[in-house]
Amino acid sequence: MKRGLWAIGVLLFVLFLSGCGARSELEKQAFVVTIGLDKGEEEHQIEVTFQVANPQVNTTQGAEAQNEKPSDTFTITADDLLSAKELAQSSLSREMTFSHLQTIIVGEDLAQDNLFHRIISSAMIDPEMRREAIMMVSKEPAQEFINANRPTMETRPHKYYEFMEDSWRETGYVPISNLNIFFQRTDGELFLAAYATAQRDPKHGVDEDAFLAGEVPQKGGDPVQIIGSAVMHSGKMVGKLNGEETRIAQLLRYHNLIKTMTASFPDPNNEEYRITVIMNQKSHTRIKVNTDQSPLKIEVEVPVRVQINSNLSLVDYTTSKKKRDHLKKSIEKDMEKASDSLIDKLQEEFVGEPFVWYAHARKDFWTAKDYVDYNWGQKFKDAQVDISYDVTIINYGEQLRPPTLEKLDKED
């Protein structure tokens, strides 16, 4: 009996230790945190840019790496991503791994090519490819974007993109886009990817959120701007949405990922000024889809909670119900107008929608084949879409009663 127990103990001991057989020391690995994909000079070839983090920078071993760069960037030309990964080992002493991959940046030229979907799909065979990796489209080649992106406030490249994604949830200017969502929406639905550039082409006289990447009138600071979205249909880029349109696209979803966002509207009681508000959704967007009607009818109601953040006109809203109602209706009208404009653009240019409204239509069909035969994209193109906003203003700023212009004139 004792010998039998001893044999079982040895066997279990060997089984537990066998898991360490395929281990790899951290110092022997090269952690890729960013990948850039561009079209190659030869047909059906791509240029893959790898940004490899230096694990010693900003760690307890930082004193030993004071003169070292936080990351190393190089480009390999190959037939596909996994081939490029193998070829990179010809000049890299450490074993390259995608286990810490955070971001995949696609040059706009490649994103508009049918080749892109095949490249990224075949790369998912690698078990190290993370489906939660951020997916971005750059106006210029991804190689140029990665080399130009040298943020002054963050030397660690993986932290830079992580912090940027957190800020997108606060502003709504950029969609939350990753590989997992991309693969979910490659069968006719529209997918919104973050749009970025390091090239400046500032626009003036534009509303604060109606910008695309590169158009924000900025002086100094980091060269990179990330705002707006690249519209992808069946895995291929077909157009762009600016920051305002991207925000609306997220508000029209049943489940909005934006926590809060700041926006400004013309003051209806003094149109020389604009009122800045902080808004969020008090509940889920209400969506009704009637597939039995021809043309297809979609009714959407967006409940929005608003608080006044800046009132430059100094109009006294706290003591006048008429002015408060006027402001509420004015905000609702402006948001409905912008939403209708976005719907027209989607129906005319893209023949699809990124709001996941199709999920509300699928429940009306008995089988998947019935839904496919319905051809949601074409039905949406001719659909009658009614969008309304239910705005609730919860406060009008910190002051109970803002001073009026007449009172300020007397004090001066």
Structure report:
Residues 23-188 form the Spore germination protein N-terminal domain. Residues 228-397 form the Spore germination GerAC-like C-terminal domain. Belongs to the GerABKC lipoprotein family. It comes from Bhargavaea ginsengi. Its main location: membrane. With 412 residues, the chain is α/β, with parallel strands linked by helices. It folds into 2 domains: 28-251, no CATH class; 257-412, 2-Layer Sandwich (GMP Synthetase, Chain A, domain 3), CATH 3.30.300.210. It contains 13 helices and 14 strands. Strands 1, 2, 3, 4, 5, 6, 7, 8 and 9 form a 9-stranded mixed beta sheet that branches. Strands 10, 11, 12, 13 and 14 form a 5-stranded mixed beta sheet that branches. Helix 8 crosses helix 9. The longest helix is centred in the last third of the chain and has 30 residues, at 321-350. It is globular, with a radius of gyration of 26 Å. It starts with a helix and ends with a helix. The model is unreliable at 408-412 (pLDDT under 50).
List key phrases describing it:
412 residues, alpha/beta, GMP Synthetase, Chain A, domain 3, 9-stranded mixed β-sheet, 5-stranded mixed β-sheet, disordered C terminus
Chain-wise SSE layout:
Elements: H1 2-17, E1 29-39, E2 46-53, E3 71-78, H2 81-88, E4 95-97, E5 103-107, H3 108-111, H4 115-123, E6 134-138, H5 142-148, H6 157-171, H7 179-184, E7 190-197, E8 225-233, E9 236-241, H8 243-251, E10 261-266, E11 274-281, E12 286-290, E13 297-311, H9 321-350, H10 358-362, H11 368-374, H12 376-381, E14 384-395, H13 405-411
Parallel strand pairs: 1-4, 1-5, 5-6, 6-7, 13-14
Antiparallel strand pairs: 1-2, 2-3, 7-8, 8-9, 10-11, 11-13, 12-13
Helix pairs in contact: 8-9
